Amino acid sequence: MRVLSIVICCVSILLAPLAVAHSGATGIVKERMQSMKQMGKASKAIAQAMRTKSAIDMVLIGSQARVIEQHSLDIEKHFPAGSLQGKSEALEAIWLNWNDFIRLTGNTEQAADKLANLAAAQATKPELMKQFAKLGKSCKSCHKVYRKRK
Fold first, then answer.
1. Which pLDDT does position 21 carry in this prediction?
2. Domain 2-146: which topology?
3. What distance in Å separates the CA atoms of residue 61 and residue 13, rounded to the nearest whole number?
4. What are residue 90's DSSP bridge partners?
5. Rounded to whole angstroms, how far apart are CA atoms 76 and 98?
6. Rounded percentage of the chain residues whose pLDDT exceeds 90
7. Phi, psi of 101 (to 5 degrees)
8. What's the start-to-end Cα distance of the chain, in Å?
9. 61-85 in b/e burial notation, b at 16+ Cβ within 10 A?
10. CB burial of residue 29 (10 Å; 0-12, 13-18, 19+)
11. Which of 13, 84, 112, 143 has its CA 20 to 30 A from that of 44?
């Protein structure tokens, strides 16, 4: 239960800035912010599903993990060179360390895929929570280095 509380806290912290981030953003910056917002909503839905005292909704967890996976696969196209204009929360470090940035997004995609597969296999709640924590850490590892601090 402690792991779940930590994951929920991390997801909440990561999502808070998204509530106001979109005002004034346009073009590709707005598109990527919307994509990140969808990933955040999916994470929040998974966290909520994990909190239940009743049977875990494996279909919901699997489908939301696939949302995160798909958006992770699309991240590269949302960060064309020089797209720092306007309300972007991206740091120039993304393009200076492109290979590392892509590696980290790949980690998120893989973590989401594994969570979806665990849900499809009807894994235990502790197994799901452990993988969800790994997914949260993968998101945080990228945001820590490549997103402006709030």
1. 47
2. Four Helix Bundle (Hemerythrin (Met), subunit A) (1.20.120)
3. 20
4. 147
5. 10
6. 73
7. -60, -45
8. 28
9. bbebbbbbbebbeebeebbeeebee
10. buried
11. 84
Query: In this predicted model, what pLDDT tens digit does every residue of 59-89 receive, in sequence order?
Result: 999 999 999 999 999 999 999 998 887 788 9
The pair of three-digit structure tokens given for residue 106, joined into one six-digit string: 């790949």
Q: How far is CA 120 from CA 5, 18, 27, 138, 146, in A?
A: 23, 30, 36, 21, 32
pLDDT at position 17 is 47
Q: How far apart are CA 90 and CA 148, in angstroms?
A: 6
Region 88-95 average pLDDT = 94
Token reading at 29: 């910056």
Distance between CA 91 and CA 134 in Å, rounded?
Answer: 24
Going by pLDDT thresholds of 50, 70 and 90, the confidence category of residue 139 is very high
3-state secondary structure of 17: coil
Task: Quote the tokens at residue 30.
Answer: 């707005």
Question: Is this structure's pTM higher than 0.90?
Answer: no
Q: Token pair of 62, please?
A: 């699997």
28: tokens are 């590709």
Q: What does the DSSP 8-state code read for residue 150?
A: -
Q: How confident is the model at residue 132 (pLDDT cuts 50, 70, 90)?
A: very high
Q: What are phi and psi of 17, to 5 degrees?
A: -65, -25
